Amino acid sequence: MTPVADALKHVNWEDIRLSIPATTPQAVQRALATSTPGMSDFMALISPAAEAFLEPMAQKAHQLTRRYFGNAMSMFVPLYLSNLCANECSYCGFTMSNRIKRKTLDAEEIEQEALAIKQMGFRHILIVTGEHETKVGMTYFKKALAILRRHFDYIMMEVQPLSCAEYLSLRKAGVSGVLVYQETYHRRCYAQYHLRGTKKDFDWRLETADRLGQAGIQKIGVGALLGLADWRTDSTFAALHAALIQKHYWRSRCSIAFPRLRPCEGSAPPSSVITDKQLVQLICAHRILHPQAELSLSTRESSFFRDNVATLGITSMSAASQTQPGGYSNTETQLSQFDTEDTRSPAQVASALQSRGIEPVWQDWLAGFGG
Ligand code: SF4
Fold it and tell me: What is the pTM of this model?
């Protein structure tokens, strides 16, 4: 049973793409006024017509965020365990054909990374790997989790899509959240960017949220890589994806991210550019549609941008991210998945948040609680 994916498969990309630019200012005003916004309101709020309403959108997003999340910002850091990958994705530095040094951390190196990250103050981590089923699969994940559980209270993963039974097993091993971004919901465009490997299978990826929900994973992360296809249409699919997850798997929480395509070795330029102002608009629209969802922002964005949107709807942030395996305990840069923009230390990010009245939260979950 894959009710979330089935519903998404029946939505017509072109219908959405063509209807968003036709939005009128009156439709935007209605979307801002309603207390029960739906998908058509979200589409109105990300339309070109809504760009003139950014101020009231920002005010509403700010109020909703404070109402449901107080002044808290949950802090996490990504931990890259491996850059091995058996897929060919033309926008990514880890892509199989890139002739780069490959590295998978062993037990001792994972321990060193954990200690370095703890030293920075983090208690929530996001494990990231390339997608290499045979060398970085369940056996490896379980060994890594056995080490990381001793150091961290909340563990999320961003790895290849797995089966429901594997997610159940990871949940028992201490995983609370899993992020699997669809990259783009446009099937033909997806095929153009994903050239080789299991990631070519659009449907297996799309059905991941159903497997996660059925496995009872506490947090499910969705999103599109903005820049691969029309950003407004992809964002509408991502918003609908989150809404369907909340409807069918209401015991899980949803997390939504808005990564913009960043330069990396050999990457293709974005085919659909979203400006800073439009990204603010998108964040506000997601907050208005999903008042209780986690909205997450990474260090792909600049410090200036992150500081300014922190009060508008973002409730989870990474800081001081290294995107190469071993990057925290060994600062000699070897290979990054993509370039990060905000390179400030955790203390500098925390101080910038506090100056805006936001309290960074390093630990809001105790290991074992609710697991
Ligand atoms: S996006 Fe993921 S699957 Fe694709 S090449 Fe990069 S690491 Fe591998």
Answer: 0.95
